[in-house]
């Protein structure tokens, strides 16, 4: 074989190595490409994104195309290298050519291209996708032949041919939010996690319980009603007649009632009733996500929560749901929280028994939890199974809970020491018993 023929074959081998590197890099880049970044690139009409999307829509055919082409050029390069080696150095040349080509293919057609593709998947995917798409279309008939035998193989061994694509779960979304925290910030990340929490929380978790609902009996004298309205911290109150349980008239919008009375210059019950909206009832167990959409659909901001027997168990407003997302933002909720918690020292607190358990967990990163329990009082009653004596202690993880004040209805004050935060060396750590 003359030197010109050998040179020509070497050039072809070089082209095969480049082609192999192209297919290796394309495979790794496309299969590691972030689908959400791809969707963003499509919206931005970025060059190559449309072709990458089309290729990934048929990922099984894409893999077949790449494997067929990559193996073909590798086999071709090996065959030609054998011919060149034999032409140059006989049988010894075959062995040398095989060893050299194996090293070159591993380094320059596998390791280096795939490493670059992992580090720059978007750039390589969008740059190589148009050319790969042309190859994909050309090789499609051959791919169908191989896929035909693949399908027969799967049927013989009863292997599912195509797995159904599933939506991202809440936990997977949480991982995405957590990974993007450095980009969006902790506050935004916490807000997005709170939105995901709405799906597993029900109205009972955040409602105002029955005994805390501000309600007005329309049969009271007008002066008493006006006094109650002036003292109410809320923008709406429940209005009932005779009995709160038997006949709820609706939700009174306080500002609207004052406006109507000012217009007519008459402080009468008739004007109050005109400002009353028909109540909407919410079944217990309704998730916060669903109730948020229910409020939107009904164009209302507040509703009455009832149990399966129709008895009122609480009240919930759209503000309560929004506070679960963004945290306490109203003056009343912030002041209520401050009244519930007295700071004695770093890591040592005196807390009201009616303090909301979820608010405490969120504020201090604790994990106090019990089934069907909303308050700290309820949590300890659940653990002691009775009203404990003053001085009784309960330890959970790094928290020491000490009963400080009780009455015949429950626990009024609890001292909590967070051993992780407690820095006072002058106080001896209390012994704890369950």
UniProtKB/TrEMBL annotation:
> Which source organism?
Psittacicella hinzii
Cite the CNNM transmembrane domain residue spans from the record: 2-190
- The membrane-spanning stretches of this chain are 6-25, 92-112, 132-154
**The keyword Phosphoprotein appears for this protein:** no
Q: Where is the CBS domain?
A: 207-267, 272-331
Per the record, membrane topology reads: Multi-pass membrane protein
InterPro entries xrefs: CBS_dom, CBS_dom_sf, CNNM, FAD-bd_PCMH-like_sf, FAD-bd_PCMH_sub2, Ion_transp-like_CBS, Transptr-assoc_dom
> What family is this protein classified in?
Belongs to the UPF0053 family.
Localization recorded for this chain is:
Cell membrane
GO CC annotation terms, alphabetical = plasma membrane
List the CDD domains. CBS_pair_CorC_HlyC_assoc
Cite the GO molecular-function annotations of the record.
flavin adenine dinucleotide binding
Q: What is this protein called?
A: Mg2+ and Co2+ transporter CorB, contains DUF21, CBS pair, and CorC-HlyC domains
Keywords assigned by UniProt? CBS domain, Cell membrane, Membrane, Repeat, Transmembrane, Transmembrane helix
Q: Does the keyword Transcription apply?
A: no
